Design the sequence.
């Protein structure tokens, strides 16, 4: 029978081997891309848990707001939507400045990539 401590060490070593296994790097800009990816991963380790806590608190306070408003779903949506929507992971495009990090989310119909602009003549 395997002791619990030995099992934990085995799992941790397996995770570390998997996480740091060698992968091919392109000749042009490969080191730069790897650095950007590593920076994004480290930033996600800090940003991700903060966003998750913010989302959970939004759901809790949204429930309180819904109850105190007599079951008004508009109030619930106004509190929960900004908390739950948004980015949970920092990507290399965030690090390079190609996309902005959306901590407080917007409704889907307000997102830049879904808005259709009409031409005015």
Sequence:
């Amino acid at each position: 029978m395997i002791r619990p401590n030995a099992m934990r060490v085995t799992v941790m070593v397996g995770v570390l081997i998997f996480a740091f296994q060698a992968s091919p790097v392109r000749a042009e800009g490969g080191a730069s891309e790897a650095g950007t990816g590593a920076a994004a991963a480290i930033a996600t380790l800090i940003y991700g848990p903060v966003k998750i806590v913010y989302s959970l608190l939004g759901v809790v306070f949204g429930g309180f707001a819904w109850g105190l408003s007599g079951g008004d779903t508009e109030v619930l949506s106004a509190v929960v939507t900004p908390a739950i929507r948004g980015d949970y992971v920092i990507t290399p495009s965030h690090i390079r400045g190609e996309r902005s990090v959306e901590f407080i989310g917007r409704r889907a119909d307000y997102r830049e990539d879904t808005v259709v602009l009409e031409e005015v003549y």
In short: The radius of gyration is 21 Å. Residues 30-68 form the longest helix (39 residues). The helical segments are 4-19, 30-68, 73-84, 92-96. The chain has four helices and no strands.
